[in-house]
Every structure is written in structure tokens, then in C-alpha cells.
């Protein structure tokens, strides 16, 4: 009886340790970092806060830009906790966005070892959604009058 009790307790302890939510990474940075630390880490990579480009005045969205990169980063946050990270790519032609979408999709497929859910797969509108243990990565291509490519990292609640 004593061995059974010890085995049950060991199982419960192991289950408690494994029930922690895995860390969600954005380009090697943990999204569980405090907002200021995350922004400082992005600043070390050459990104700076662009307060003039923020889409709302509430402070829930922080825009980071780096002139050397072809994308800018939006951080969705609530009370200093990151909720989502979105890359908005600035590319010149529809062909370049199609190629970049395919490259990003292939890279995430290799990284995750899983096929994405693709609810939309047309020539000029494509969506690939990857489900990870700690969140979702959605790659969206919309080629209308101007080419747009977005990569959204959403944390599971």
C-alpha cells in the first residue's frame, strides 16, 4: 500500500510539472518576458519604438521598426503582458510576396514538423495557420492593389 501511495504521489508531482504552459518564442525571444524587457531585446536587434505609427492611442499596440529590415513588428499587449506579435512585411511586387509566403510556410512546416491548416489558398489570397503547444502562427498573403504579407504569433490563453 505504501508503494502504491508513493507511485501515485510521484505521478501527481510529475503531472504538475508537465502542466506548465510551454514558452512561446518569437524569433528566439520569449513572449513571456515583460514588455519592457522584450522591447529592450528588440532594440538590441536594431528595432526602435515608432510611437507615430501606432494604430491606436490606447497604448495596447507598440510598433517597432528597423530600417534595415523589410518588415515592422506590432506588439499587442495588455498590462505589460504580450498577447500577440505581428510582422508586417513591406515588399514591392505580388510575386515577391508569393515567394516570401511560400518560404515562410515551408520554414514553419520544417520547424514544427506539421502541415498547416490552410483555409484560403488562392493565387492572391493565402492563409496558413500552424498550431503549436503554446500558440498559433498565421501567415497571411493578400495581394490586391498593394502586396501585403503578415505573420501573426498569437499566444494561447
Can you offer a commentary on this structure?
The chain has 157 residues and is an alpha+beta fold. Helices cover 29% and strands 37% of the residues. It is built from three helices and ten strands, in the order αββαββββαββββ. The protein has helices spanning 2-18, 35-44, 94-112, and strands spanning 25-26, 29-30, 48-49, 61-65, 71-78, 81-89, 117-121, 125-131, 135-143, 147-155. It has an eight-stranded antiparallel sheet, with helices on one face. Strands 1-2 form a two-stranded antiparallel ribbon. The chain is globular and about 40 Å long. The termini are far apart.
Write the layout of secondary structure elements.
Blueprint: H1 2-18, E1 25-26, E2 29-30, H2 35-44, E3 48-49, E4 61-65, E5 71-78, E6 81-89, H3 94-112, E7 117-121, E8 125-131, E9 135-143, E10 147-155
Antiparallel strand pairs: 1-2, 3-4, 4-5, 5-6, 6-10, 7-8, 8-9, 9-10
Number of helices: 3
Low-confidence stretches: 1-19
Report strand %. 35-45%
Spatial arrangement of strands, main beta sheet = 3-4-5-6-10-9-8-7
Counting DSSP E segments of at least 2 residues, the number of strands comes to 10
SSE pattern: HEEHEEEEHEEEE
* Structural class assignment: alpha+beta
Radius of gyration: 19 Å
The biggest sheet amounts to: 8 strands, antiparallel
Task: State the end-to-end CA separation.
Answer: 40 Å
Q: Which word captures the global form? A: globular
Give the rounded overall mean pLDDT. Answer: 82
Helix amount: 25-40%
